[in-house]
Structures are given as C-alpha cells and as structure tokens.
Amino acid sequence: MKLDRRFLLRGTCQGAAAVMALPFLDCFLDGKGQALAATGKRIPTRFNTFFYGLGLTKSLWVPKTAGLNYETTIQLKPLEPFKKKMNVFSGLRVMVDDNPNFQHWSGVGASATGISPSKTGLFDSKTIDQTVADVVSRGSRFKSVAAACAGDPKQSYSSLGGANNLPAEASPLSLYTRLFGPGFQDPSRTDWKPDPQIMLQQSVLSVVAEDRNRVTQHLGPSDKARLDQYFTSVREAEQQIAAELKRPDIEAKVDIPTAPDEMVVNSALPNMRKVLPLMARLGALAMATDQTRVFNLSISEPGSQMFVPGDPLGYHQSTHEEPLDPILAYQPRVARYNVYSMELFAAFLKELDAVPEGDGTLLDHSLVYGFTDVAFAKIHALDGIPVLIAGGASGRMKTGHHIVGDGSPVSRVGLTLQKAMGLSVDSWGGGSMETKSPYTELLA
Amino acid sequence: MHNRISVAILALVILACVGQVPASAAGGEVVGMRRLTEQEYRNSIADIFGKDIAVQGVFEPGKRIGGLIEASGAILSITPVGFDSYSKMADSVAVQATSEKARARLISCKPASAGQPDDACAAQTFSHYGLMLFRRPLTGDELQSRVKLAASMTKASGDFYTGLRYGLASLLQSSNFLFRVELAVPGGAKEYTLDSYSRAARLSYLFWNTTPDAELLKAAQANELGTPAGLATQVDRLMASPRLDTGMRAFFSDMLQLDTFDNVSKDSLLYPKWSVQLAAAAREETLRTTIDLALHDNADIRELMTTSKTYINRNLAAIYGVPFNFDEDWVPLAFPPDQGRSGIVTQISMLSMFSHPGRSSPTERGVALMDIFLCEPTPTPPNNVDFSIVNNTDGPLKTVRERLMAHATNPVCASCHTHSDPIGLSLEGFDTIGRHRSTENGQVIDVSATLQGKSFVGAQGLGRFLHDNPKYPACVARKLYSYAKGVDSQDVELQDVKAAYKAFGDSGYRMRNLLKAMTESEDFFRAAPPAVAAKSTKLASQ
Amino acid sequence: MILRKRLLAFSSATAVMACLSHPAAAAPWVRGFVVGTYEYAFRYGGRAGYSRPGEIEPGSDCIHGSTIHFSNGEQIRRALKFQSWRSPEEIDMVSTLPTLEQAKTPDQARFMIWDRAMSYRGWRRGIETYINPFAALDPGQPQVVSRIGDGFNLDGKVGTNDFVSPDGEKGIDNALYRAWGCDAPWRGNGNATLDMRSNDKMQEGLYTMVIRISGNQDPMNDKDAVLEIGYSPDKIIKDARGNIATDFSYRIVKTEQYTRMKAKVANGVVETEQVAELHAPRIAWFYDHAGDANFHQGRIRLSIDADGNAKGLIGGYRNWRDIYAQNTFAQDGGQQGVREHEDGVALYYALKRNADGMRDARTGQNMGISTTYRITAAAAYVVDAKKPAEITILTLEEKRRQAYLRIVANMIKATTTRIPQDVTPGTSEGAYPNMERAIVGMPSADYFLKTLDRPHFDDVQEALASK
C-alpha cells in the first residue's frame, strides 16, 4: 500500500484538528493494527512525561473524596474520558531543605528527579524518564524523544543531570523528520541487529547455570527443591534474553514522501491546540512502531508563557497580576488557563488511547507522568503541587484513584512509576524527599 | 607456542590460587543454604568492594518465622523476578568494580595487554574475589569457567576489563554468593559439624552481619576454628570490635520486628504529627537504646524492661512532649516521670508499630509483645468472628478496654484474648503514636491488668512483670540461637541452649556473655546429618 | 488613658483571683511559640459579598478600592505623561506596545518594557526612579480613610491621624496602615498577595521567628514576666495537614534579631514593656531582604489560648526608608510595580508624608513611621543552644543579598543627599538585562532598546550575571 506521508500533516494545515486516519497506522503495522503483539512477544511498556507550567487552582481541581469514584472537578473535567485510566495526587509536598525555593524551578526539579535543585535551571540528577529509558529502551531505535509544543527546543525536562538537557523537537516537521525521516528503522528489514549487550549477558548466565551440577550433589530434599527454584529463575532469565535476540515480526511497507508544510509554533493557544495533537500523534506512532519507548512532551517553560491572542497579559503574568476574586477566592482568568492546560493534556492522552495494541491501547501499555512547577503560581508556593498520571503500565499500575498526599514528598510518585515500569529500584530522590515508600496500593 | 605456555601458566596459577583442598571439597555435605538478607548483601559488597560501590535494586522480601526474618532465609529461594534483580545488581557492581576509577584500588594485577585476554591476571582476580564472595576458595572448575568466560568476553569486546566484568558478574549472581551454603563434615559419632569456612561465615554474619574478613578467612583456612582456643581467639576479636554493633543491630532489628514500620500509617486527620521521619526516628531510638544497654553499658538485659533512659532526636521530642536541647542530633532522655513509661515497651516504636491508624490496639500490642519478648505467639482468630460490636466507638462501651472486656466473657474468645490483651491494656495510657494520655473519649483510662495469674498496673507494672519473668531472658537466648542458626525459634527448646543460657544467667543476663558462651558451645556448629528425612520438608517460595 | 487601662487590667485580675476557688501555686513557668503567620496589621474594610471581576472592591478603609497601577496601557500612559522630557512618540510606543504579539514571549516583553519605562520617571533622563524616588513627581497614593485600626498607642498621645482600636482604645499609632493600607498587594480579606507569599516562604523555611515567655507566678497571670523574641536557625515543621506542628523544639539565638523585654500577663494576655529598640525578624519573601525589623519604642501584645497557641500584635516605629527599600527592591522596583500594581514612588511619598516618629534632631524630619504587625504562633519549646548554632549561608543567595544591600545603600544616600545615584549591578533593577531577553522577536524591539533609559554598567558580563 503506497503511503503518502504528506497526508499526515496536510489536513491540519488547513485548519482542521489533526486526526490521523487509521489506515495510515495500518501501513506501518500488520493489517490488524496489532503492533508488536503479533509476534507473541510481550508488548514493551512505554513511559511518557507531560509538562505544563503554572499548576492548577486548588479549590477547583482537588476532589473532595479520596480513593476510587472521586467526583470529577471542574479542572479535571477535560480529562474525564480518561478518568478510569488515571490517578491524581493532591497534597504532595516539595521539601527544599537547605536550598532556596527557586521560583518556577524547584517544583520542576523535585518532580523530575525527586531532589530539591541546588541551582536554578539545573537538575541535580538524571531525570526520571532517563532513568527509565536506561532500562526499558534496549532494543528500540531511540532511547528517548522529547518534543515541545511551544516551539522552543530548550523546553525539555529530559536530562542527564546538570544542564545536560536532551533538546526537544520544536515543530511537528522536525519531530516527523526525526522519527520517520531518514534512518526510520523498518523492523522488517533483513539487516536488523539485536543489542550486542544482550548477547554478552547470555554468556554470563550460562556460566552461572554451570555451577548447578557441582552444588546439587549432596543436598537434602528441601534444599534441593530450593536450588531447583533458583536455577529455574536463571533459566527464565535466559529465555527472556533469547526472546530479545529475536527479530520482531512486523510487516511494514513505507514510501518516503515529500516534506510536509511548515507551521507557526509558539505559545499562542490556538497554535498550541493545532500543534499538540500532531506531536502527540507522532509520538504515539513512534512508540507503536518501537522507534522509541520513552516520549517527553511539554507545552511550556516553567512559568508558562501561554497566551490567548489579544490578551497581552498572558498566563504567567496573570498568575501574578490577577487578584483573587473576593467571592470566588480564586483567580478566574488564571483558572481558565489552568483548564486550557488540562485540555491539552487530554488531547495527548487521546492520541495514546487511540492506538489499538494487543488487548487494549497504547495508553494501557504506557505510563504518562504529568507534572508541573508550582502548586499556587501567584506566590510560587509548592505545597500541594499537583501530579496527574495516566496509563496502566501493561497491567502493573492500578488506576482510577485520587490519592491524598498528607504531606508526603512528591518523589513517592516517581518511585511508584519506576516500580510499575519494572525497574529494580528500592529508593528514589534525595534529601528529605528521599523515599523508599511507593504507593503500594497502586502497584498491581 | 605462546598459547601452550599461557595454558601452563594458567594451570599453575589456578593450582596456586585454589590452594590446598579444604575439608569442604573433600567430603562436605550441604546442610543448609541461607539466602542473604538485603543488609547482609549490602554489607558484604561494601566490605569486599568498598563503600563507594552503589547497590540499587529490589531484594526479595523475607518472611517472619518464629518471630525472626532471618529464619526464613533458610527456607526461601529466589524467584525469577528476584533473580532478575540480583542479576542486574551483579552486573552493576561488576561494572563499577572494573571501572577505571576503581581498578587501581580493586584489581591488583595488570594485564600484559589491555585489549587481549590475560588468563593469569584474570585467574588471580577471580580467585581473590571468588574466595571472598563464595566465602571459601573456588574449586578448580569454578575458577576455570570464569577465566574462560573472561577470555571470550575480552575477545568479543576488545577490552580486558570488560572480560573481568563479566567474570565478576557471574560470581555475583551465583547461588554460592546469594546463599550462604553451609557445608558440614562428620565430627564424631553420628554427628556432623560445620566445616571451617562455614564456621567463619556463621560467626561473621552473627557478630558483624557481613562476610568474613581477611583475618577470619585466614583462620578458617588454617583450621583454627576447629579448636577451642582458636575459636575463642576469633570470637573475642569479633566481639571486641565496634562492628559488633552492626551485627547486634541486625539481630535486634529482627527480634523487635522493627521492619513493621515499613507498613505503618496513621490517620493524618487524627494524628497529623505522625510522619515518615518520625517513624524512622522511632526505629533508630529503639536500636540505639538497646545496643547502648546491651553492649556499651554491658547491662542486664532485663533492664530493657524497666529503664527510663532513652535517646531522642528533634522529631521524637515532640511526641514525648519534652524540649530538645540540640546538643547533638541524638541526645539521651530520661522518661518524664509523670508519663509512667518503663523500658522498651513504652518507646514510641513498640507503641505505634502494633496499633491501628486511628486508635490504639491493646490486642495487637499484646500479641506482638508476647511474641517478641516471651516467645509466645498467639493463634489467629476464628473465621466467623463478628467484629462490629467491639469496633463501634459510638456505642455504650466508651473505652477500648471496655470493648475488649466483652471478649473475656465469651469462652471462644477468652482463651486467646486473656493470653494477650492484658499486656496491651496496661499500655492504654499511650495513644497510637505513643503519646501519653490519661483519658479516652472523656473517660479516665484504667490501666490495670492480670496476666498469667499476676496483676499489675500500667506500663511500669508491665515493665516489672516482664523484668521478673524468666521467660523473657529465655526468649532472648532462644531467639539469638535461632537467628545465628537460621531456624524457627518455636522449634528451639531451652534445653538446646542450656549451657549458653546458664552462662547468661550466671553473668547477670549480659548479652556479651550469652554471645560468647553460645558461639563457643559444642552445639553451635553442630548440624543434623544430611539426607535424613526427619524434618518436615518446608518448601516455601514466594 | 493608659492609666485607666492599667487599672482595668488590675481590677479584672483581682476579680479573676477572687473567683478562683484556690489561687494558682506560684512556680517558675516557661511558654514557647513559633510564629506561623506574620503580616502587616491592616484592616480590610471592603463589603463582604461585593465583587467586581478583577478588582478588590471599595470599602470603609479605601473608598476607591485598592490602588491599582500599571495594569493597562492607559495607566502607563498617565504615569509617562509626568515626564516632560518624553516625546509623545515614546509615550505612545510604550503604552500601546505595537507588534507585541510577535515577540516570542509577549507577556514577558510587556512586563519588562513597562518595568524599564517605569524605572525612569525622573525630572530628566537617566535618573533611575526607585533609587531616586524624590526625583519623580508624587503620583499620589490614596490613604486609608477609616478610623478603626489595630495597634498600640506608641507615643501616649491621641493624634488626629491616629486610629481607634476595635476595643475602643484611642490614639492608636499605625501610620503605615494609613499610608499603605490601600496598596493592592497588601490589601485583602486574608488573601492579600504579599501576605500569602511572605507567609508561605516563611513556613517553607526562609526564616523562623520564635517567642519565649517566662515568669515565676502563673502563666495566665504574672506581674513579672519576661518575653524574648528572636530568630531561630531551626526550620518550621509542618504536620500532615499542612499546619504548623505543635510541641517541636526551636533554638532561639542571640543574633541582632533578638530582644528580651519585661512583660505582664493578665488573664492570658501578655503585654510587654515599651523598649527603645525591639529587634526581631522582619517580613520577607526572599533571602536578600530578610533581616531585622528594628521597632523603635516597640511593644508586643499576645493572647494565649487554652491549647497554648498565641496570637497578637507587635509594633513600633520603623525607619520608613527601610520599609520602602524592603518592599521595593525585593526583586526590583519595576517588577513590584507592574506585577503587584503598586507604584513605589507613590508609596515612598506616602511614607514620607505619614512619618510620625524617630525625629532627626538635625534635620527636623521624622525618620520613622508607626507600624503594627499581626502574628499567630503555635505552641513550641523554645530552647537556648548550648553549642553555637550553625546558621546556613546560601552562597548564591548571599551574593544577591550583597547586591541588594548595595542598592539600598545607594537609595539611602540619594534620598538623604538628594543627589541622584546610579543603579548598582547584581540585581534586576531597571529590567536590565531582562528586557533585552524578553523582547526577542518584536519588530519594535530596537526602538525600545535605543529609546528607553537603562542602567549602565561598565562590565556587561557583570550585568548579565546579575540575574
């Protein structure tokens, strides 16, 4: 089937919302739209981050009930279609310890690394998506990909630590080029090579397995059974490795079309509403075809500069300049911007949920970590910094909960996410936010 | 030509490294395999490779058997998920150990060429670390297979140290490292006794909670641990070291079930002061006071029940209701007299671990303390119990005590509840986070109790009762013995520790005397003859 | 008046004593508190239930509502018209900001252009306004018109500008309320922006203020008590519900922010003596402008409730130039202006006009203005440290603090000598180089770069490093 990739972007440039027709997807995959499941191989779990600046409005977003079946609040309404696949966290805390509260930064650093940053603009360690990518990205083409809907490559919260941020693709075209341009790895090509590291690990395990004969000679029956169990585990590890050495079984026929059109990418809301679904769709397709397993999407810098054309005040300035309405006790204009951010988040989740995969969707086989920079932007307060996560992590994350933090450090969520991704990690974060307690009630 | 010479050299090196064949390879039977706990694993890696090596990963959880998690290491195995984690950790440690930074410190030989295999150097390295990791010398086969692996990895990667890395990793994920394999040799009529290296391991993990150090390994190789004098020398050395604190912390942490804190949460509306930091502080408080009393002051272990001395930090001060003087991070405190506290059972840890999120639980406290200190666990409640009456705080029964007394009148309930509730009832003067209180729901709390025929009032009465109860030091002795040997304390009779217990008592119940007498007694290294199906096959894997 | 109040206190004390079935045993007692909220004691007079979107409504305190400056182009235009040396073109360009939408960050561009423009409103070009507020015309700051205010009668007199307390006490000296009570960021019914911000930062760990009261008779009634107030190096601990946790221990250290005063307690209300200089921490929301409040003729009144928590007032005369500096140079004058909608120049003149104490004999001017602050405090153990307490210095913040002190020194020099002083490097005063960064993408950027005055530093790198 001849594929016209121009089709990908043309519909959007004419002003319509970007909804990719499914046949496009099928060209990359086998006709049933069952991407990697067709091989019988376990579908890898993907990790996504979504950054939006300036937080939310507490009185409008925090549900009054905790646990399952919490009421949908005004600011969570745009996310209602995905409520059952999400968990929301209120009442979390950022402990800055001996560091200052860097305006619009400490919350970002804390959410992304679990550590209160010691310098503004810098991360004190690798960010969570990189820690996850270190483990789950073996075998995929790109270790991770980052994209910025506001058009600035510096708006990336994916970092190796310090100032080593991985730059974000700043337009749909550049993202498209990166993912599906030259170098697009068609998994059905004959020269596909497995990761050499995997082969070396195989040799190690066979030496370990050799120890068996020597040890088991003189064992009593119960100890023999226990050793059997141990060596069964070794064997399982060997089998897992053998699976990773096999080429994935995907049929795909792709034509390289001409380059798609340019578009204006900036912080104007109407432009973001066009750009985000595109970038989200591209990211979803990239994950579905295993170009990457870690995708980072941001819609702003910390202290978001999002604005509605005609309104010179913009989002950030509004948070500082708009007074609290004396009756409502919140900032009405700021609250509207909060909702715009949630609508964009919902558009991202929509694209992930629109890709059927195995017995569910791409979203079911992913985790999405939605974090921000502040709890109350007007005064740069961090207490109650919101965290929203989505996705079932291929069954390892239970969803549908509102968790009340009770002053827990925000790093607990990051630890929970890593465990759900299958990372062998017992603690995360630093200083007072170092935690060993994941939310076990969410881990299946 | 070159190859033949290097093979010959290799053979010599292997022979040299393997050394004289120890008793283990000759006729050693495996009489026990004890999975390393997380702390034992970490301490061993730190001692073998240095504290700079980071160990990050998930460890398989243990199960409490006879009140001790240590006992489960003897019956649990390693699941695929667990092995996956151990495998990754093994690789991570090996990568760090062979990194450029660490090489100079950890690898004493240099390869002839950095990109080529060097079997002599590889053999020397694996022999050295194999001895430390397996806690005995490697057999010829074991060493050979690692050297071969390293050579082929070096060829595949073009780097000698990469080869070393994979060889080390294979040692680190071997069952011989992850389990303490205890080998025994015949030692007298119908008896088996642990071989030299197994003795070293048992002593080292008991006293220091880590792998045998170089001196202990040397003593093992020279068979010194088989003679009373040689054994005493090592026991005295191990006990004189400040590292004894580490070993005893691990023991008391296990016996006092301090890992319960991993699962404690309190209702934040009712008890907003409770926090994770407070839980960690309470844990440390109990360990500090116990080690201080048992080891540093070398006091009578029974005083743990009556002492009014404890250690607090800033967090704990707020719960005890006293000012904190900031002299150090931890300062000693004498319990305020009007709070009626007495000993370890009234420390915040014991009071909060065995208690509900929203209110205190005399039953839970009673059950836990009977189990921990008197070695008397309580059976689980019957299946068809209706808890609604006793859990209703709005009913006519205002205090927890009143609601519990309803159990005493019901014969089905009474048998267990009269066994365990009294201890908890005497502690009702403390709420679920360990703060002192004198009223509950407006009513004055009655803290009198009767247990095993003895009546006492309040925590101080309880402290006296436990202090005077011979079952308590007996329980300490039984649990220490079970911890050291990795067995179920419920299966250990006082008879089994007779000699050690006598020495304990004669010394005025001093832990050091118990430790010395126990480890130097004939029974300590005795093992049941293998392949005898006398014990029930407890197959437990999670 | 004062005498009558004391008599009242005395007679009520005896009445209480008579009512008690047995007198309280005399014994040494100590009570400690850690301050959880610390705000200007302004009273909000707006009508409850009145709302006009985007404005804090008028009321008995401010008949025109909160004063709002620089919130739109018209207000900017009005401010720019005062400068006779500005061309009409410049006034137009700055207030209408053509091509703003094409800036990469339009709201930052607007913010910074206005910041810079408002920072240069002197009688001629090149005089930075916030360091030299006297060099600009007074735009006028509406005062609080109501008669009721919280505070103390500091001078013992009943003046025409004084307030009456809610309890009916006349002669209350709280001229700062008069001067600044309508200022937008400080006016609100429990939600004034800068109140919220400074409390949040204090609770987060910026500084800790503690109080200790002790005596030998009875904590509820003691004629001979002692009150100590000061800075604590120990961070505030909050509980799981977000409140200040009670019963935690805090060290009180005898830094320059410490004072010990005599006090009397009657029915749980503590009244201290009036001291020449009451040193205590001051309100702050950044590290650089935190420090000593230094109340002259200072006093404290606290009432303690059954749970052992306290609330009350602390007041005295404060050097009004200090108050101006701490409020204006928190980030920079222009930012305070455009973001918080306050005009530092207007606030300066308002302070000067209402200054009512600390008379300078040489110049005959009042150097101080009467102020009152409201505090609430949670029960705590306040202890003396036996070892010297380590106070954490944050190196980067310290650099910024030195820069702040330099700029304040320049402002003091300027207002005393009336010789215009320059902006010193190290802060973002004059939006330099922030405006340069923010207007990227605007076609009219060049115009603003060339036309608007800005600070001139010899070392451009110094300027760039100063943010």
Shape assignment of chain B: elongated
Rg of chain A (CA only): 23 Å
Largest sheet of chain A: 7 strands, mixed
Proportion of residues in β-strands of chain A? 5-15%
Structural class of chain A: alpha/beta
Q: How would you sum up the major sheet of chain B?
A: 4 strands, antiparallel
The interface involving the most residues is between: A-B, 41 and 58 residues
Helix content of chain A: 25-40%
Q: Could you say how many structural domains of chain A there are in total?
A: 2
* Strand element count of chain A: 9
Number of strands of chain B: 10
Number of domains of chain B: 2
Roughly how many Å apart are the termini of chain B? Answer: 54 Å
Query: What is the count of helical runs of chain B?
Result: 24
Strand order of the largest sheet of chain B: 1-2-3-10
Number of helices of chain A: 12
Task: Detail the poorly predicted runs of chain A.
Answer: 1-39, 249-258
Helix proportion of chain B: 40-55%
What does this structure look like?
The complex is a heterotrimer of chains A (444), B (542) and C (467). With 444 residues, chain A is an alpha/beta fold. Chain A has two domains: 44-187 and 253-442, Alkaline Phosphatase, subunit A; 193-246. Helix content of chain A is 34%, strand content 9%. In chain A, strands 3-4-1-7-8-2-9 form a seven-stranded mixed beta sheet, sandwiched between helices. The radius of gyration of chain A is 23 Å and the shape is globular. Chain B is of the alpha+beta class and 542 residues long. Chain B contains 24 helices and ten strands. In chain B, the strands form four sheets. Chain B has a four-stranded antiparallel beta sheet with strand order 1-2-3-10. In chain B, helix 1 runs parallel beside helix 6. Chain B starts with a helix and ends in a 15-residue tail after the last strand. Chain C has helices at residues 2-19, 73-81, 88-96, 106-118, 175-180, 193-204, 320-328, 333-340, 344-354, 395-417, 434-438, 445-451, 460-465; strands spanning 29-40, 208-215, 222-232, 249-252, 259-266, 269-272, 275-278, 295-304, 310-319, 357-359, 366-384. The model of chain C is unreliable at 1-23 (pLDDT under 50). Chains in contact: A-B, A-C, B-C.
